[in-house]
Amino acid sequence: MSTNKKWSVLLQVVLALVLVGVGVGGGYYLWGKSPVPQAFFVRPGTDEAFQGSDEILSLISSARQEVLVAQMEEEDIVWLEEALASVSADVSVRIIITPKDGAKFSQLTEMGFEIESLDTRGAQHHKFIVVDGKTVLTGSEKWWGNAVLVTNTAVAESFQEEFDFLWDLTRPPAASEPGWDKMSCLERLNAARFADLVDVDRIAGISALRILEYRESRGAFDTVDELKDVYDIGPALSSAILDGLRCSAP
Fold first, then answer.
1. Can you give the pTM of this predicted structure?
2. Which end of the chain is more exposed for a tag (fewer CB within 10 A), N or C?
3. How much is the pLDDT for 23?
4. Which of 57, 81, 82 lies closest to 137, judged by CA?
5. What angle do CA 198, 203, 205 make, to 5 degrees?
6. Quick check: 144 and 52 in contact, CB under 8 A?
């Protein structure tokens, strides 16, 4: 057997083992047999339901220190109000909602909870709840068909960091603050927040996040022209973004 053929056979064997491993590992994860304690509310791909809403109410009601709730939409209002009504006044509650449903969450604002809206147009997102820094409920955008409960401090800490990142994105536009009009184009690009960027015509949430991540990874943009180096931001979109920040491309 030639050397090339031997390597080809070996590669096929390795690939087969990887696929088997992924299948077995994925099966253990999906059916709640991973090392991380968890419990699906609805088995993926079936209508076999667990105690979904009851588990959520119980989870939030058990809070003693903090409840973080991200990416809530209109269909979540009823059960969220019911769950939070049982939370002690000593518990800190922060909620991130979608802008289109802002007015519909007024009841929760009146209940004294901190609520911010975040426009994630064009960016994939998922719902999640973190309770007391140790328990996480997470799933897809429409989590009633795919949700998992994880009781693990390390996992909860990572979700807390994600929540704080999203919460920071809800800050009002830098353009609304004093001093913006006196900034140069480069200064505006380095000071722009998520709200400034998603307000630009033709730019989606995912593009705004890419710009912020690019800027953070380098500390700042060195030149305005560097905006074109951000993934999926070509010359035309770069010019549109700079126009949206009320300055012109060089």
1. 0.69
2. N
3. 38
4. 57
5. 55
6. yes
- With vertex at residue 211, the alpha carbon angle to CA 207 and CA 216, rounded to the nearest 5 degrees, is 145
* 156-160, 200-204, 205-209: least confident range: 200-204
- Residue 151, pLDDT > 70, answer yes
Environment class of 106 (CB within 10 Å of its CB; exposed 0-12, middle 13-18, buried 19+) = exposed
Angle at 200 between CA 70 and CA 126, to 5 degrees: 20
- Measured CA to CA, the distance from residue 71 to residue 76 in angstroms comes to 10
Q: What long-range pairs does 138-144 form, CB within 8 A, spacing at least 24?
A: 141/71, 144/41, 144/42, 144/52
Residue pair 188/233 in contact by the 8 Å Cβ criterion: no
Q: What is the pLDDT of residue 143?
A: 58
Neighbour tally for 67: CB within 10 Å: 23
Take residue 61 and report the two structure tokens written for it: 């009601």
Could you give all domains of the chain from N- to C-terminal order, each with its CATH number? 32-169 (3.30.870.10), 174-244 (1.10.150.280)
pLDDT for 107 equals: 76
Pairing of the two strands 92-97 and 114-117: parallel
| Residues across the chain | 250
